[in-house]
Amino acid sequence: MVDGRARSGRAGRGAAAVLGFGGGSSALVVLLGLAGWAAGQTADPVSLGESVPRGAASRVRIELKAQGLFRPALPPDKMGPEAKMPKPVSLDVQTRLIFNERVIALAGEATAVDTTGGRAAGGAARGKPVRVVRHVMQAASAINGEKGEIRPMTAVLRPEVALLVAERSDVDGPVVVFSPAGPLTRSELEVVQAVGDPLAIAEILPAGPVKTGRSWRVGEAAARGISQYDAITANTLEAVLESVDEARAIVRLHGRVEGSLQGAQGLMTCDGVLTFDRRRGWIDRFELNRAESRRPGPIEAGLDVKSTLTFTRVAENPPATLSDAALAKVSLRAAPQSFWLALEAPDGKSYLLHDRRWHVFWDDRKLVVLKRLEGSRVVAQCNVVVGPPAGRGKHQDPDQFRDEVRRVLGPRFVQFIGTGTVDGDPAGGFRYKVGVQGREGDLGVVWYYYLVAGPEGDQLVVTYTLAARDAQAFGDQDAEMIGTLRWHQARQADARRR
Predict the structure, then answer these.
(1) Does residue 144 register a pLDDT over 60?
(2) What is the assigned CATH class of domain 340-497?
(3) What is the pTM for the complete model shown?
(4) Which CATH fold topology does 52-327 show?
């Protein structure tokens, strides 16, 4: 599994033909008209919406470089009423995502100007892509801070999940990415479902024809795609058609976006330029400068950063992995489990699956903390801690574990609300659950403690904490997650037996 966490050109026109015309006022009109057209200043409105054939293939490169200040959160064991927040530290972030892409679903008919009457060569329909399949060539992120105050973090994509599907099921919704081969990790998802996705930046383009020099409001879908905010509260982004010729259009973008990412409120100013390839019917280059200030939130820490996003796309024949024959062997349709994420235990000996509303808040070699976000509110927390080894085929005594839970909770304990073994890994293992009702001050709290042991005697303690008022809505999510927990040794041994 994965470790860590994360010019436009202008088609020139020769002047020789213009210079060949004779003098006089009519010739001057022709001269001025052709010169203006050559400079890209067409008087007629043009349509710039993406219009590509189903099956269109390209190679996309997205890079983000950011520098600024990071306001880190307190470690879980340092939190308390007297705790002081750590000082801001310098931050340097670099991400790179390179993939081949093939369009597999369109939203509708062509909106861009083309000479094929809305049909591509071979009769393929043209329109706006809403679903694509990708083969990732490179996906990595690196985060570094000054003087070791930020633990350097890197994330890469495992080769076995390099085939991805990206889609927008809602016209104003976000781009969602999954791998047909199995669950991604959170750090992998953050690399491949990132800012600057081509399905999102296409929404910068105008909905109808525009003239050179005219501007339009950029909608929420594009604002989300270039900011990564999952909720937009204000958007003043504006685009203007700067120039256009037969081959391409140049669009400038500026403004600001206010919103939140995982409950952390932010403000981002943007200034950039894109080029639209009129023959291909897509954006082929986008460069955006961003400046963001974000307050700390329930999941994300605060930051003040400046960043540059660059996006390039070129037409390229699909690799063998995106051929008709290869894709016919893969189910590209999303199922509910397609969107699950995999979480490695701190010692790397086991993993479990969870849905995408669980976010990693803390991750080190002893402890992983997940928080469940509903909207902007944290409704539950899950701690995964490595326990002492018990020896092959053994585990801690359940009665001793239950007594230890009561001792740790101390005055917060009110009563047990259920104890007993639960179904385990088919490959072997032991699982025991202790439910507790208690109080934190005036707040009613529910804890679910799990003792989980593998065939080799490795042990985990997994704890779910939630307000009593949220228990009914939370339901059996704890049991569902624990039911997915698997031990690597057991799976490897089972694979060898097969």
Answers:
(1) yes
(2) alpha beta
(3) 0.83
(4) Lipovitellin-phosvitin complex; beta-sheet shell regions (2.30.230)
